[in-house]
Amino acid sequence: MRPTPTMFALALLPAAAVAQTEPSVVPMVQASGTVLDISAQGRVSRVPDVATIRAGVVTQAPTAAAALADQAARMSRVLAALRRAGVQPRDIATANVGLSPQYRYVENQPPAITGYQATNTVAIRFREIAKAGGILDALVAAGANQIDGPELAIDQPDAALDEARLEAVKTARARAELYARAAGLRVRRIVSIVEAGVDAGSPRPPIAYARMASADAKTEVVAGERDLGVTVQVRFLLD
């Protein structure tokens, strides 16, 4: 049979190109030895360096316009007090503005609107936690009648979390050595490391603030310490 151009083209192709329909299977190499999985946690403590306070004004009036006007006037005084306290404009953000009717309920009668309630809340963020108490007092003196906080947090936790990561791996290694000795084996190497969880020192839940009766009493805020943690899962090979 006389060869055709197609036959010559196929002859020039490599064998792998001709047999493209055959799947390539890469054998999985199993580690020889005993596999040990360890879960360990590293924790460090830091003093919070950021405080967030939510402060607002709640007003009530017979009409919606009157409630909003009263609320706006009081909120203006609150914001002025924050500026006098040294809080930067970039650290003040509106958190909530609301207006809702107030009802009177009488049995067997439809609810009747008796007035309106207006609210305006701002979130204040600042780094000098020692000043938090003074700012709370200044807010109340300026007319704020709804305050939550402070929430204390760590602004940049990355360096502390890296320290916790080192501690977690070190703990996992020590624990693996313990298991290996108990089993009459030795740790050959680490097969894998997986970061299973991170706790960056979540802010504490807000606490209600109540001004003390004495005019001379001052509010104090104590930062304390916050724990940060990292959990890792490490696989070791023993022999």
Give your account of this protein's structure.
The protein is α+β, with helices and mostly antiparallel strands and 239 residues long. The protein has two domains: 31-47 and 156-212 and 220-239, Protein of unknown function (DUF541), domain 1 (Translation Initiation Factor IF3); 50-153, Alpha-Beta Plaits (2-Layer Sandwich). Helices cover 29% and strands 36% of the residues. It has helices at 5-12, 15-18, 64-84, 132-142, 158-182; strands at residues 34-46, 50-61, 92-104, 112-126, 146-153, 187-199, 226-238. A four-stranded antiparallel β-sheet has the order 3-4-2-5. A three-stranded antiparallel β-sheet has the order 1-7-6. Helix 3 runs antiparallel to helix 4. Mean pLDDT is 82; it is low at 6-29 and 205-215.
